């Protein structure tokens, strides 16, 4: 798994590549929690390069979201492959995280 | 069309990578791809992780046996272990409607398996947990 963090104005974008599974979830957790505890409040996670996610990967999203929420922040997701969308629906996460088709729309979603 | 894979899996989370590669090759040979392939990998990942993590105390590692069979319109999987009795079909459902800030972290793995597989059955026999699951492959 690779993770690239970029800042666009007030929005922090995490571009993730690879698999989010038990082998990578600890590394993902450390990096993501580093970003959200470091003061970022508007965070986008770009799943364009993610081809697999399991419950341990989803758990990291929930932890990040809960931390952001306490500080008045928000997490947007984008570019999730069609075949993976279902697990977000099954877990009910699609009702809770705004999910956008692409990164530009996910960033724009913080405005207004 | 009749592919078969039998795997013995050690009681170690490092085995998940070998499981993934073996299952990936099996699915390729059987012409299973896309959503069905992801669901099969996800279900086996979650189930085997649970067995390795919770089925037995560290001083008594349990043996795990997996058999996959490619039929004409489905993949049939049988997962056996000699750990403590555990029926995943009776595990409590997570509350997927709770507000996110109040959600417990965890408990989703078995829930996924129950939702994405087409058939599941469990029996405890001769001191072993035996879980049968079927994923239809003609619904792409």
Automatic annotation (TrEMBL), chain A:
Residues 1-110 form the STAS domain. This is Anti-sigma factor antagonist. InterPro entries: Anti-sigma_ant (IPR003658), STAS_dom (IPR002645), STAS_dom_sf (IPR036513). Belongs to the anti-sigma-factor antagonist family. PROSITE patterns: STAS. Pfam families: STAS. One of its GO terms (molecular function) is anti-sigma factor antagonist activity.
